[in-house]
Amino acid sequence: MGFWPGGWGYSLLTATAMTVAVALCGFLVGVVLGCLGAAASFSRLRAFRWAADVYTTLLRGIPDLLVIYLFYFGSSSLLTTVGALFGAEGFVGAPAFLTGALAIGVVSGAYQMQVFRGAVLALPKGEIEAGRAYGMKSLLLFRRIVLPQAARFAIPGVGNVWQLVLKESALISVIGLVELMRQAQIGAGSTRQPFSFYLTAGALYLLISFISGRGFRLAEQRAMRGIRRVA
């Protein structure tokens, strides 16, 4: 487990960095999809509201592992078909990092959509009405009033979604990405010391969770400066 020649320390740290990278990419994809979904849920067009409702209901009801499989094998089948048109033979696998990040991003977007939607609904209606009475256009109203205020309410929920995304990143090992969980499995199988490797992996996950959780708490405290809280 050390960093000497033959040790697994560097491999585990590299895998930890891969876990953070894929989780962060998936989380950012989820932020974009969550914002678009929340905006669609408030649209005056029924089709947009219906699409947002179907998206969040479908993705929250399907197991995350199934979504990862669908993304990986679906995109691999497409690449194999396209490759065959250009003379390639055999199965063409999709990039595990890209498909894994997109899969957990699409799933997390369904949860973040509800977080953002709830944050907007928590805003005092009087402030929005005052902005409209002042003559603000929709985009200006969103940028100056809705977005800064909603971000304050959304930070705790977004932090919880990040923790879920971090844990979901372990599922990507099933499509071949060597992240922390997969590296722990490889080390456990090679050394026949599963307890040591899985315990180390758990400690690293907890470390990432603690650091990121602390960061979200600091962001929440900063965002809530000047806001009186009723005990």
Attribute tags:
mainly alpha; 231 residues; single chain; MetI-like fold; 77% helix; 8 helices; flat
Word description of this protein:
The chain is mostly helical and 231 residues long. It has a single domain, classed as MetI-like (MetI-like fold, Orthogonal Bundle), CATH 1.10.3720. It has eight helices and no strands. It has helices at 9-41, 46-61, 64-85, 96-121, 125-133, 138-168, 180-191, 194-223. It starts with 8 loop residues before the first helix and ends in an 8-residue tail after the last helix.
Shape: flat
User: Which structural class best describes the helix and strand composition?
Assistant: mainly alpha
Which radius of gyration do the C-alpha atoms yield?
22 Å
- Fraction of residues in H or I helices: over 70%
Number of helical elements: 8
